[in-house]
Amino acid sequence: MRLVDLSSPVDASSFEPDPVVHEVLTPREGARHMSDEMRKHFGIEFDVAELPDSEFLSLDRLTLTTHVGTHVDAPSHYGSRASYGNGIPKHIDDMPLDWFYRPGVVLDLTGHGIGTVGAAYLEKEFNRIGYTPAPLDIVLLNTGASKWAGTPEYFSDFVGLDGPAVHFLLDSGVRVIGTDAFSLDAPFADVLARYRRTGDRSVLWPAHVAGRDREYCQIERLANLDEIPEPYGFRVACFPVKITGAGAGWARAVAMIDE
């Protein structure tokens, strides 16, 4: 089996509109930290000089949102109420695990500029590759945006889905849609420009708003989709980190390809 890493990193040195703060305690600093914590919480005195090289363990502290790096959006990210079920959208720790280990299919959206792609194009692309989506397939959109990762362009130059395109996939039984772009919707500036030009509220983040009426998850900020050799015939694992009450969770997404 060949594994293709579909995940983009959490990197404090990369450009982010909401910057990542990554603080590292060295093993020597970790020793002092451990000694202080043992004294504070358990009343135990411990001299770090007794440790080999006066070192214990390193420790990383990060300040970031759950939407940095490859992550899975939960239904609760899309709004506080849902029109389905009991009206309360699920958080990421409530999502069924079997949604996140399923057959995958990659669709090519690399020929599109900034804006949105509609249902007609997705249907055409499925016909081109000779595949009909099955319930619970994980559909991955290769927009080509990952080449801009770590730069301001990554957040402004990409293509997303319009509302009918999302519903087209959900009508097929798909419950997880992934993209290598910053968002499954079009860039903020494009969304707002179309709304101000038309006054049509349906252009306001329709891919996310669709999640208020249909229970589904998005995987955003994928990578290396062009390294998957065939558009289908592989599996995707993208289990989100279990964060209680969160609207998203980071994921190490991987394509599993039989050889």
From TrEMBL:
<dbReference type="GO" id="GO:0004061">
    <property type="term" value="F:arylformamidase activity"/>
</dbReference>
<dbReference type="Pfam" id="PF04199">
    <property type="entry name" value="Cyclase"/>
</dbReference>
<dbReference type="InterPro" id="IPR037175">
    <property type="entry name" value="KFase_sf"/>
</dbReference>
<dbReference type="InterPro" id="IPR007325">
    <property type="entry name" value="KFase/CYL"/>
</dbReference>
<dbReference type="GO" id="GO:0019441">
    <property type="term" value="P:L-tryptophan catabolic process to kynurenine"/>
</dbReference>
<protein>
    <submittedName>
        <fullName>Cyclase</fullName>
    </submittedName>
</protein>
